[in-house]
């Protein structure tokens, strides 16, 4: 027995030794002997061009083939790297491959084709440029695909497809110039996160087609041009979150999403919305035919709208309980438009036109909807955001309109008075010939009385001299003298003795 044990352990040691020696052998040949690269004894391949190597070619054949024992690959800091097609297919232990700071990464169809034996491999590309991401670049069991700060000029149709067991697809700070239809086609993933970056001037119809996103679909801070109808066809997400995005234009049903949970749309800028832009978002209630009676939440908060049509912010009322708040309308507040804007956004009158299977439930719901003015905001002259009700209270209320009415009335009266004045003046001017000169109506008190003697220049100091006596004298030159007969009448009981 002891001899057997000894033999066995010797055999094991030999086997182990031979195993090490194969890895050792692979350390000094193939890709490992390339000047920019080195290998370690755990199956790691690290390449760093550092300005020495112009172009690094990763291939499974040729002068410097990749070893099939490779466990992980890190390529960094190279001006140009070419990953030939199917160069990874023989690496049954490949766990991760990373490209960092590659100025020109050239990929072919099936460049990322993995061995069917691999499990849970991750692909990371960071701070790199790719001219074309060709069709069927990927194939196999990829646990995670992560692009960070990657610029891609063109993503061909079916670039992302044939993925299995994918946990995460994360595109962060990426710039995609042109995305072809069906660039992302039919695979399952738990998390699809597109964070910041831009998806180009147009996201075509079915750019993301038929993906089952089982946990979260997130668009966060992404810039997009025109998003065509059914650009995002996504099934089963438990959470959908579209936030902080700036979108030029959303066509009808741009998001074709069958959610199994809540949908949150917040702090986005939608420069153009058409009727039914959000009507493609619905609930996936499974195939059992039993419709759950509960609604999912859909929140639409802190979004900015520039142009929008009637019914552009309608949601599927059969499936969702919409919570709408802080709708910011990026236009100057205008009393005459507030009602129209609210109506365009929240009026469901045209809903049945788009949603044929309108159920009684949805109809019931529609009738309950009250349009709250506090929900909406517009911009005043000094570019502050004002809620509709605040603006209306100060600018468009009944009291202020009454004030306007009063002002108008006063104006009218002033004008009337003016006109009447003019008429009177005109009449007077015309009747100048038989004008009457007014005679003083009050008898001038030129007479004073002293001890019953009536006389002029009475000795009393207070004798009044009235300058108001007006005399109408014919032309003085015709008459030498003029005689005045002044009759002083006094009808007063005399108190003095005569
Ligand atoms: C890819 O591999 C196929 C064979 O599998 C070959 O015919 C084709 O030329 C390769 N393409 C490139 C770009 O190397
Ligand atoms: C990138 O590398 C490929 C292959 O060497 C080459 O054809 C292409 O012109 C390069 N692109 C740029 C922008 O240098
Ligand atoms: C809202 O989105 C804009 C545009 O992406 C961003 O600049 C801003 O920080 C976001 N605000 C909040 C509170 O997240
Ligand atoms: C919306 O914006 C306001 C201020 O602009 C902020 O106080 C509030 O928290 C935001 N709400 C959400 C849900 O982001
Ligand atoms: C609001 O509109 C103005 C002018 O149309 C534009 O310059 C500004 O960027 C818009 N703001 C937002 C948040 O879209
Ligand atoms: C909705 O719009 C229709 C016409 O499009 C209008 O007749 C109706 O009064 C509006 N409803 C509300 C609540 O404003």
From TrEMBL:
- Which residues does UniProt assign to the signal peptide? 1-25
On whether Membrane is a keyword of this UniProt record, the answer is yes
Write down the InterPro entries for this protein, in alphabetical order: LRR_dom_sf (IPR032675), Pectin_lyase_fold/virulence (IPR011050)
Tagged with keyword Disulfide bond = no
Annotated TM spans? 402-427
- Keywords in alphabetical order, please: Membrane, Signal, Transmembrane, Transmembrane helix
Protein name, per record: Right handed beta helix domain-containing protein
Look up and give the organism this protein is from.
Fopius arisanus
